[in-house]
Design a protein that fits this description.
The protein is α/β, with parallel strands linked by helices. The chain has 2 domains: 2-69, no CATH class; 74-288, Rossmann fold, CATH 3.40.50.150. The protein has helices at 52-56, 61-69, 74-88, 107-113, 127-136, 154-162, 181-189, 214-224, 262-270, 278-288, and strands spanning 2-5, 11-15, 18-22, 35-40, 43-48, 97-101, 119-124, 143-146, 167-170, 196-202, 228-240, 246-256. The strands form 2 sheets. Strands 8-7-6-9-10-12-11 form a 7-stranded mixed sheet, sandwiched between helices. β4 and β5 form a beta hairpin. α8 crosses α9 (262-270). It is globular.
Length: 290
């Protein structure tokens, strides 16, 4: 990897086949507004990092930026935590039939395959994600659906139920609106009872004083109402920002105890959050610092 700094403070880096350019570190942007440039056919083209469709259209570009340059470690961290929890419960990864929600181009599924998971079904909103996954990792998924889970045709919903899913995995897809609360609840309700969820989310998205979005409220309500039982959590560096700062996330593995009822989802989306009982509040404080 060769790196050079221009007079205006931007950094140019050769990563594999791609010549990448990043903004000067002083221009530290919100995570959802980060951008980079890549030289294609002699001209610089700018992409917002979270504009996944155009980035996925270029083979290997997402990996060059997010994994090789920004050192993303979330797939490894989440899968490792899930594996460790299953070992405590004398269960194993080959027993899992996983719904990979916000599947992207299949990086998480590829890591799951190294643990001999029996079934993996991907779901994403954008067709470019499925195209990239089938192009770059053709053996990662048993099936891959494109669309909004809350609006799936009946035959596609039935198809998902036939997989008898017992694990939901969502990595780097929560908290920026990529997976809204209703979609997450729908995916969760597809799991059989006593199934597992393994997710990660930016740490401040789980704190009520810094984020009170529908998804953040939904997770807090799911803990409070014993919809899930948290078995393990781990704070870690998800990746570097474009300015070189560490971005900390929380990985969490939990057991499903019951479905998310419609009334609870309504509370989460509308913000009608009741007071949290003291015992649950203490648990949330231990897990998330809330």
């Amino acid at each position: 990897m060769k790196t050079a700094t221009r007079g205006n403070g931007s950094t140019t880096t050769q990563v594999g086949q791609y010549l990448l350019r990043f903004p000067e570190p002083a221009l530290d942007r919100d995570q959802d507004a980060e951008w980079f440039e890549v030289k294609i056919d002699g001209a610089w083209t700018r992409f917002r990092l979270h504009d996944y469709g155009p980035v996925f259209d270029i083979p290997g570009l997402y990996e060059a930026v997010v994994y090789d340059t920004l050192k993303c470690r979330s797939p490894q961290r989440v899968v490792d935590l899930l594996d460790a929890v299953l070992e405590d419960w004398t269960e194993s990864m080959p027993d899992l039939r996983i719904l990979d929600l916000g599947a992207g181009n299949g990086i998480v599924a590829q890591r799951l395959r190294t643990r001999d998971v029996s079934k993996i079904v991907g779901v994403d909103l954008i067709p470019e994600a499925r195209t990239a996954a089938l192009r770059d990792r053709p053996n990662a998924y048993d099936d891959y659906l494109v669309g909004d889970l809350t609006r799936l045709p009946a035959d596609r919903a039935d198809q998902l139920r036939r997989y008898d899913l017992n694990c939901l995995v969502t990595v780097a897809a929560l908290g920026f609106g990529d997976v809204p609360a209703p979609a997450f609840a729908t995916a969760f309700n597809l799991l059989r009872e006593k199934g597992w969820i393994a997710i990660n989310i930016k740490e401040n998205f789980l704190h009520p004083t810094t984020d009170d979005s529908g998804f953040a409220r939904l997770i807090r309500l799911m803990v409070r109402e014993r919809i899930i039982a948290i078995e393990a959590h781990h704070r870690y560096c998800h990746r570097l920002s474009m300015a070189g700062h560490q971005l900390f996330y929380v990985a969490m593995v939990a057991r499903k105890l019951q479905h998310v009822p419609e009334t609870l989802l309504h509370q989460a989306v509308e913000g009608a959050d009741a007071p949290v009982p003291e015992l649950v509040r203490n648990h949330l404080a231990a897990v998330f610092g809330t």
